[in-house]
Amino acid sequence: MIVYFIGAGPGAKDLITVRGAKILAEVPIVLYAGSLVAESVLDYCQDSADVVNTAKLDLDQQMQLYQKAKEADQSIARVHSGDPAIYGAVAEQMKRLDEMEIEYEVVPGVSTFSSCAASLKKELTKPGIAQTIILTRTEGRASSMPEGESLAELASHQTTMAIFLSGARLPETVNTLLEHYPASTAVALIQKNEWPEERRHVSTLENLLGEIETKDWRLSTMLLVGDVLCDEGGDSRLYSPDYSHHFRKGGA
Fold first, then answer.
1. pTM (two decimals)
2. In the predicted model, what is the mean pLDDT of residues 44-61?
3. Which residues contact 187 (CB under 8 A, 6 or more apart)?
């Protein structure tokens, strides 16, 4: 018996990895967070699979399902949105599984920050503009921010930021960013990325709040920040005719 933690990607069922889809087609039990994972991903499951929506289950109740599967020697696929390594809430499950002596494996997935960039057709790192991406989130009831990781401290670097779960505190977030970034800094809001109802709004820090109804962006929203979102500048020398590297000798 083994538990597979599978990153389902941001929403579209064809953004799950081949490995993840293959496992879903083989295991007899599938657990998924129905509030976050698109049900279309479950199309990969076998018809006879026992599929459980864990949205209303606490951790103890979920662990009971793992224990029951262990007793029956049945493997489980535990499906998470995006990539399990980022805000996946898998560490607490892994700790319990270690205590229960249940083997587990992690199958990575496409993270929302990279799929949002793809939706916008943007690169989040550009030479001379930003070579660092800060992944963070707004503080919520379930998870406080550790010391040294306040939004203001992170924003002081003025590099590309991907702020998960940003919709609930959007005015406060934007006002904090304005203390550290130029007002003209490009921003993009992406809600329900790769779901049928996805929507996007591209603007600047100084104009964003005046262009939208913040209440409409409260749930499942990513905020990307940085001038990498602009079309100007940032050309790499990697493909320049005069640039040499191990595989190609550049001309004079």
1. 0.88
2. 95
3. 174, 177, 202, 203, 204, 205, 208, 223, 224, 225, 229
